[in-house]
Amino acid sequence: MRRSAVGVLLAAALCAPTPSYAHLVNSGLGPFYDGALHLMLTPMDLVGLAALSLFVGSQGAGAGRLLVIIAPLAWLLAGAVALYSRVDASFAVVNAGSLVLLGGCIALGLKTSPAVAAVAAAVFGGLLGFQSGLELRAAGADWVALIGTVAVVLAVTLLISALVVSYTAFAFRVVLRVLGSWAAATGLLSFGWIMASGAS
């Protein structure tokens, strides 16, 4: 008897109506943490940022240091432009294409100069930041949420690029190339999904 009462109460609690937040997570801790959680719960942005960090980190310590400075700044500037502009476009196809490109470069073990890696960090960080800014604006967020997102960008780029730079063993390089191929495959799947949803 007692178990059935607990079951009924649990079912009632699960069926209770609550507000739904489509994309920007309302953490209850304020807009900074809402923005930080936004990035952590947006898989394509996170995979793109991880792929960028893997690629630039594989170029060496100098490129990794540039990434940690340039990617968050590019994300912040592009996100601010998107947050306060009237652009209503989606850059999902461009982001999927950039994921294929970055993943392919990682999988092939492409080596570039730190200057080229810095340009890649600025371009891809800016693209991802612009898309993130559009999403934040659509959710009614402000610049504090953007700062929270940029803080997570800084942490992710720092951690992943430092990990890649510090390990030079052959086995780790193989794992890195496999991760690159997975990132490229994720971009291809995303591109196919975008095309299929656009056709219907």
**H and E order:** HHHHHHHH
What value does the Rg take, in angstroms? 19 Å
Shape: globular
Regarding quaternary structure, how should these chains be classified?
single chain
Low-confidence segments, ≥5 residues, pLDDT <50?
A: none
| Counted beta strands | 0
Count of discrete domains = 1
Structure overview:
40% of the residues are buried. The mean pLDDT is 84. Helix 3 (43-57) packs parallel to helix 5 (92-108). By secondary structure, this protein is mostly helical. The protein is globular. It is built from eight helices and no strands. It has helices at residues 2-15, 31-40, 43-57, 61-84, 92-108, 114-138, 143-166, 170-199. The chain starts with a helix and ends with a helix.
Summarize it:
By secondary structure, this protein is mainly alpha-helical.
Write the layout of secondary structure elements.
Blueprint: H1 2-15, H2 31-40, H3 43-57, H4 61-84, H5 92-108, H6 114-138, H7 143-166, H8 170-199
Helix pairs in contact: 2-7, 3-5, 3-6, 3-7, 3-8, 4-6, 4-7, 5-6, 5-8
